[in-house]
Amino acid sequence: MPASIQPHLVSTTNEIPGHRIVRPLGIVRGITVRSRSVVGNVGAALQTLVGGNITIYTELCEKAREEAFELMLRHAAAMGANAVVGMRYDANEVAQGVTEVLAYGTAVQAEPAG
């Protein structure tokens, strides 16, 4: 994670508790596109037979979200932000077995309130 953006300064709301937004900098995003491997699909199919959480897909999804989040923070830091508000995730299948994961929000400069 970029040193200039601390985890507590990323929010899904339009504000950051205990901070005041002094300057909005614009929309930032991080995008990654992932595909499932043949080996992963076979392993997931076997897990499906047993039932429950399909850990192979869970790990793939978590890694994709983490990467998209990291890219969004880098984009925000490059714009001079120290925080991101209104953060969201989105995912779309762009081809069979190929998924796009997008993390986006508004880059801001924030300072402690008071």
UniProtKB/TrEMBL annotation:
HAMAP family: UPF0145. This is UPF0145 protein C7456_11022. Belongs to the UPF0145 family. PANTHER family: UPF0145 PROTEIN SCO3412, UPF0145 PROTEIN YBJQ. It comes from Fulvimonas soli. Gene3D superfamilies: Hypothetical protein apc22750. Chain B.
